Structures are given as structure tokens and as C-alpha cells.
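A sample copied in:

***
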Amino acid sequence: MKQATLAACLALGFAAPTLAHAADASAAPSLGAVLAATPNLSLTGYLASTYTHFDTTPALRQFDTTQNGFTFNQASLTASYLPSSGFGGSVTLLGGNDAYFLDGGSQPNNATKVGVLNAFVQYAHGNLTVMAGRLPTLAGMEVVSPLGNNEISRSLLFYSLEPIYHTGLRTAYAVNGALTVTAGVNEGFNHDTQVTGTSKTIELGASGSPTKMFSYSAAYYYTGTGMYYTSSPGKEQLFDLVGNITATDALNFGLNIDLVSKDSYNGVGSGSGKADGYALYANYAINDQFTLSGRGEYLDDKQGIASAAAGGMLGTPNKLKELTLALNYTPVKNVKLAAELRQDKSDVQIFDNGSKNKQTSVELLAAYSF
């Protein structure tokens, strides 16, 4: 019955312009009326643009492609019907410069593209939820949408060690408020699905909020095919842990840990590579409109399986550090403005086409949600 109701409402919504010419416009329901009349049906989105200035080029971080100038980063639209019981689905489209990262393409400055960030069907019954399609990853503290992060730039862990999405099947079971367990099988990390070998990627997860002050999530990914830069087959694993502590109404802290291992890390034979990443977050709400945030990271890429590859130095051990300070301002409910100062340091010269080991940047963000 709910699916039939949804189909009827959507049909009326799409037919509204035609009906307006054939009969009195007041007879056609508005989109707002359709959404209000159908519980669990939503249509949301946002627009986001940044100004970036780097003292080196390229930036070597996710979504930042303009050394000194403005970029239209994202235009996102999500249509979802996700009832607490029964079948539903959700689709998120992403346009703008950042969409080039979804499938591993090149990112020409100020270019536009539209891609599918997530698209899945869902079945829910009691404590059980089953999802199939292109799914958001279980790993990481940060997300693609700038509305979900307190810093403008994405972390080293987000860029070098963590996936964005997975294509496959996922099952989650809520034991209680303190524990939800997840298991799934998928095709790999992001666009890296057509690699040598036929092994699938196994995902396991656990999350919950044992107390009002503390929440956590843990994710484990295992595959026999390549995920990190090379197409050579070999066992690869990612363990991701996220913890959040709410110290007061105004102050909270976050921790993200990533442990990665990869066989045949140099793509030419035997050998095992490892990379460990740690990110610490602190956020302080000055008042209802202003929030001050900080992020510090340390990435130990022991055999150069991830971070050094971005600078064309695959197989070169590297240690990266970064510190970011950001100020977020919300003048009205649907508008977010932010400013950020960041510095990255590396043990090897991966910045400025291999001539520098340090990078400083300033970024500004403007976003509108609806």
C-alpha cells in the first residue's frame, strides 16, 4: 500500500505542470503537498562553493583542485523514501567539481560533472535492515557533504586511506542502542572495481551510543584484490575506528584511527605494506551561530602504499602531519559560512611537484541547504 501511495503521489507531482494547462492549477498538488502527504518521503539538497589559496601545487588532497581561486564544488540532491518498516530507497546525485572524484576521474579546475554518490534499495523489518546498491562507506569520521564536517578541507585519512562508497549488499541488525552490527559484501573501494582478480570485499561493522556522552563506530574491510592505487591482486585490509565524546553542551571531541595493510604494495611482487593514520578533532560552540574547530593528524605510511603515491612516489616511506583551525558561522538556519587555515608537513618532498615538504593553505566556504 505504501509503495502504491508513493507511486501515485509522484505521478501527480510530475504531472503537475501538464495539469496546470489542462485544468485549474489549484487542482494539482504542489511538491510540498506531495511530500507532506507521504510520510518518510523527502527531497533535500545543498549548494557549496569554496575559495582556496595554496602556496604549492597541486594540493594533494580530496576535492581541492584550485590553487588560487573560486570553485563550484557541489550541488547535491537526495530523494529518499525510507520507512521504518517495509521497502524503500534513496538516490543522491552530486554535481560540480567534486563529482570527478566519485569514479576516480581527473579533476579539471572549475569543471562540472554529475555523478551518483549513493543509490540503494532498502528493506526494514523490526531491528533488521537490508540495503543493496551503491552504499555510503562505514569508515571514517568525515563525509562528502561539507555540511557534515566542521573543517572545510578533508583529512589525510579521508584522502589516502578511506573509501567514499561501496557497491554491494549490506545487512544491519540493531541489538540495542549501544550496539548495531553490520555485515556486507561488495565490489571494493569506490571506482576500483575492475582490478585483477575476482575476490569480493567483505565488510564488518559495529556502532552505537552506550551513553549520552559517548558514541562509536568500527569498520573492517578485507579483500583479495587491489584497493590502494595498484591493480595487482593481494590481500588488503582496513580497520577503521571512530569515537565521539560530548564533554559539555558546547565542547566535544572526536578520534579517527585507520590501520591499513596491503600485500604486493609496490605492484611488482612480494612484500607487505602498512599505513597507520590518526586524527583528533575538537569543536567548541561559542554560541548558536559560531563554532571553533581544530583537527590534528598523523599518518605513518610505512612503505608508501598510499600518501606518497599521490605525489608520484609509490613505495617511498613517508610520515605526514597536518593541523587545521576552522571557524564556522551559521547566520540563518540554511546557510553555512566557514574559514580555515591549514598546514601540512611531510618527511619527503611530495608537495609542489616534489620540491617541498610543507604546504600552507587558506580556504573559505559558502553553503546553502534546502
